[in-house]
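Session log. Operator J.P. requested a structure for one protein chain; no other inputs attached. Running the standard single-chain path with token output.
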Amino acid sequence: LVELMGLPPRSTFTLALALEAVHAEDREQVSAAVNAALAGENGGRYLTEFRTGGRGDVPLRWVESRAAVIFGEDGKALRLAGAMIDITARKQAEYEREGMLQALASQPLLRVCVLKGPQLVYQMANAAHVEHVAYGRDVLGRPILEALPELKGQGFDVLLRQVIETGVSYVTSEAPALLDRGDGVLEKRYFSFVYQPVRGDGGTFDSVLAMGQDVTSAVQARLDLQASQARLREMFREHRLP
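Structure written below.
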């Protein structure tokens, strides 16, 4: 714990000394969590994340602290028992993922969203997704089949859960989707998209990053051309000389 908190070697670990080692920007929230536990809130338990170090040659670390207060028969706190783990790598991965999501979300041609858990609850949806897939509907915090009920039976939820369960990406092109533009009439759109599994805090896959591009115009143009060519061939057969 002494090393994890960035304290001098052979230091005697005390609560006061540990709080001093917490990063200045995190100290208030850590102190509040400890004081709340000492007051008996949440059964005397707390879970908090904070930074330590970052001074001189002491590296900056992210730490997760879980603890519980042991109370005496008179209700007074006797001691604080808990554990700390280094979560620096996890935090760095989160920052990298958030940066990637922000970069993707800013792309006007990409429909980007993150869906979490077996119910595929919207955690994030960029403006392009909200405007051109949800057609302005409020999707955040809602399961995909509740936010976009017209997708029931179209198989997208099955594919998304499969990606979470297997950890294997799914890529397809020109997939048709029937979407409700708000008047109850379903419109067929075509999308090329990638479903990418995302690891959660526990190290297992619990979410999907979905990135898609609407290719309806290109698909429709090709279908129109094919239809025109078919009509021309039919006209040629009808008017050709015997």
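Operator note: The first helix runs from residue 15 to 21.
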